[in-house]
Amino acid sequence: MTFAAFSSLALALALSAAVPLQAQPAPxxxxxxxxxxFRAEPYRxxxxxxxxxxxxxxxxxxxxxxxxxxxxxxxxxxxxxxKTQRLTTPQLMAAFDAPEDTxxxxxxxxxxxxxxxxxxxxxxxxxxxLRGDEVDLAQWERAALAVVKQELAxxxxxxxxxxxxxxxxxxxxxRAAAELAARRxxxxxxxxxxxxxxSAASAADKAKETWELRDELKKKLARDKLxxxxxxxxxxxxxxxxxxxxxxxxxxxxLYRWQVGDAAPVALVTTQRDLRIVAYTPDDSxxxxxxxxxxxxxxxxxAAVQVxxxxxxxxxxxxxxxxxxxxxxxxxxxxxxxxxRAPLKTADDKPAPPPKQVEIMNYSERWATAxxxxxxxxxxxxxxxxxxLYIRQVPAGAEPPRRQPAPVFTHxxxxxxxxxxxxxxxxDGSHYAFTTWEREKELLRVYxxxxxxxxxxxLVLERRGDxxxxxxxxxxxxxxxxxxxxxxxxxxxxWRQPYAIDVMTKALRPLVTGExxxxxxxxxxxxSKRMFLLANRGDAAAMNLFSxxxxxxxxxxxxxPGEFHRNAAAxxxxxxVSxxxxxxxxxxxxxxxxxxxxxxxxxxxxxxDKAWASLKLLQPERFSYINRHGDRIEAYAFKPAGWQASDxxxxxxxxxxxxxxxxxxxxxxxxxxxxYLFGQYMAAKHGYVTVAVDPRGHSNYxxxxxxxxxxxVGEPQSEDLEDLVKLLPTQYGVDPRRIGLNGWSFxxxxxxxxxxxxxxxxxxxxxxxxxxxxxxxxxxxxxxxIGKVDRTKPVLRKxxxxxxxxxxxKPLMLVHGMQDPNVLYQDTVNVYxxxxxxxxxxxxxxxxxxxxxxxxxxxxxxAGWHRKYEAFWLQHLAPRPVAPR
Length: 885
Fold this sequence. Notes:
Layout: H1 3-17, H2 34-37, E1 49-53, E2 59-64, E3 73-78, E4 84-86, H3 90-93, H4 99-130, H5 139-185, H6 210-224, E5 237-240, E6 246-251, E7 254-259, E8 266-269, E9 275-280, E10 286-291, E11 294-299, E12 305-307, E13 323-329, E14 335-341, E15 357-362, E16 369-374, E17 387-393, E18 409-411, E19 418-420, E20 424-425, E21 431-438, E22 443-450, E23 458-464, H7 471-475, E24 478-479, E25 485-490, E26 497-502, E27 508-510, E28 520-524, E29 530-535, E30 544-549, E31 555-557, E32 564-570, E33 576-582, E34 589-594, E35 602-603, E36 621-626, E37 632-638, E38 649-655, H8 673-686, E39 689-694, H9 703-706, H10 715-732, E40 734-744, H11 746-757, E41 764-768, H12 779-785, E42 812-817, H13 825-837, E43 844-849, H14 862-876
Parallel strand pairs: 38-39, 38-40, 40-41, 41-42, 42-43
Antiparallel strand pairs: 1-2, 2-3, 3-4, 5-6, 6-7, 7-8, 9-10, 10-11, 11-12, 13-14, 14-17, 15-16, 17-18, 19-21, 20-21, 21-22, 22-23, 24-25, 25-26, 26-27, 28-29, 29-30, 30-31, 32-33, 33-34, 34-35, 36-37, 37-39
Helix pairs in contact: 1-4, 5-6
């Protein structure tokens, strides 16, 4: 039976148990219920990952499994024939697993399916009960307790049987010892009474009471809770050969080889250690892989394994004992870079103290317990490890070890914020490059080096200040195939876009121009004349794939307009590109696009449950407006059926507002739970107008947007929200007295900030998991997006929401997962205390997930989460029905 069939059967059986004792018709509504929208088993499947073309460009491989199947299997598509082959399956890889493992995978998959079905049935039954239907809500607990009771009985029977055996053996041993002692003493051996062999059974144990069985059930659920290792994982990584159409992939720590035409993969190394494939050797005669930091080389025709990155050797008086933490090998296989770090020590040469830890309370047991998580905040002294970069030649064969060269670049570490990128190698191994970022100095540097063990790299670019955010993560230097140009992403003109540095002249030039973000270079054509990249040119809510002329900067769109393209790859022959692409009308799938502009696009996956289409959700309407500063603000809205501009409907605004890589809310392929799914529900079910907006502060709208929070966090967003509220009545038929504001994480902070500083702008607010005290948040984020820090005192306290809380004048619900390791639950507790101390008891309420983390996910499930939101909005925005027309 397929997973889909099994799941449907399990759900049908579970739902049949939830039918009311006296069936009553459900209330008539055209909108799907929250239980349907936020189904226990999500409709969304996993997208394809790690797509990569073979060196010839003929084959595209990716990791993916169809909807409902566990793990990610390896697939290969032949661009010439149009055929797709699935290289791995749970059944195929079972040949390399222990029987116990495959049995566990099957058992746990069945458990997951059953849990989905039961949870969905319980959700439906609970809502039927609340409508007044006669529903047996205790049926699942009774069934679970019966299982526990039987398991306990089986265990007791097994234990009693073993005790009886143990007792009989002990009695026999006692008799044998007595007989031996009697013979040695010359005394007659006493005859064993037959009755002694069968002693009277003790009284039966008293049956456990229901509360005791519940305790046992709690233990069982904790014991059986699904872990990532319980389900079949599938391959997690692969690389193509340098020349041939073949690949090596990693599965559960082992390495396996597949060649075009093979029906099944062949095991290469299965040591049950964490192996990762790095690359084939340049001639495809072997492969390079890692094992716990070591880089190893093996030949297909030989059994020997060679260590390429031998650990560093230090003289006895060497102060810094560097250890290798990262190795990069050039594509031609001749050179490698070794990044090494020294152990942390204090001034008196003692090991540095462990990082600061904070406690997170767990209330699930009889007595509360605490777990500790690492936390580095803005006023902590930093203990950055000293680092050194080495350039080495890769041994050509079984030659003796070479003398260790001196590092080509070092950094002393200490109480500083210093970041270094991965080392990028030119295709021919002639050059390497890397970038560094020093936060305190606001100093960005780009280094270019020749393939030489002893030559220092040259500083070819230096910028101080105004370089954007996510600096090292975004730059990602890479060489063109001809090794003549270094391409990297810079924020030179207020937008993150690719720039070229000429390797010979060191001249810098932009590769594209315009007001759009394009910080993801995908690849190049073999002649280095064209580049492929992702850019939101022409549509800030979408990312398209573009072919760019390296000389003129002319851009040609390859993907369909209005689709968001992610995780893109390009073939080395320049003929093909691929990406996960889609939008609100067609959920994202892996697509193969030809660069010739003529060949039709192929869709290679089908990732989502087809039942999604039956929900018939509303489609949002995109719009934008100009704020008071002349900035264009992107948004989308859901309008209910029968909407007219003259309506006076309640409205809800969803906001995030924080910069982080390329995150924002208004994206044409995002079905975000609250902004999109719940937003369309409130429009369809209750006639609300719901809006999702990207005010200043978001990423992917240029530096002016992403840097808007700097040292005035929350204020730019509140200004943009004010400007939005002004236009909603006239353009969207919203009653200005009945608009609610909602946000999560940074949006939770933003909701509170706006409710406290502009107390009459919104009629009510819901703030989820918002950081209320930036001095206690992770410094990796706060120190680059909130404000300048001082590691001698918590200066970010000036941005705390606690002193502002007294300004609240309208109802506010605070939502948080109590075991959140990201935004600590204490942030919500502390602002709640301030609200109570300010006499806001009647205005504020708490909605908590005792087991939830930053995205909740504990006892509070998405359907119940948004049911709470629904009740809050219906209570505080007091909708008046719109008269029928």
